[in-house]
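Changelog-adjacent note: as of this version, every example in the card shows the full chain rather than a window. The one below runs 132 residues end to end.
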Amino acid sequence: MLVHCYLQLLLGGHADAARALLERYRPEHPCYEHELSQLSALQDEAHVRTHALAQHFLVNRFVVSLSRYSFTLLMAFLHGESETLTLTLLNERLALKQLPGEPCALEDEAELTPQTGLQPQAVRVRLMLCAG
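Full-length structure tokens:
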């Protein structure tokens, strides 16, 4: 979600807001530092339109795997809080893949596999919703 919001801000001509967003939330995503580093070099809409990784994120949906129970809780929260914008972004930019079984705790973020999104593989992700 961070990458898509960042790219949309750049495409909309809001480079300062895009940089501020990335600076604020980048530390929360150490597993994706390589990709965020590449994307942070983008300065404007022209850069986004010609950058291969940026184009890949804009064209493809990122797969997020979660248990059915977690999916149900997420949807109940988003509908209950009238988070229409968040729901729209989820539907446009993510592919939520429901897995059978119980949710599992992620003990250490080192368990995450950094993905560029170039291979459509699901990874275990701790889904965090940030208000503000």
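Structural remarks: The chain has one domain: 2-124.
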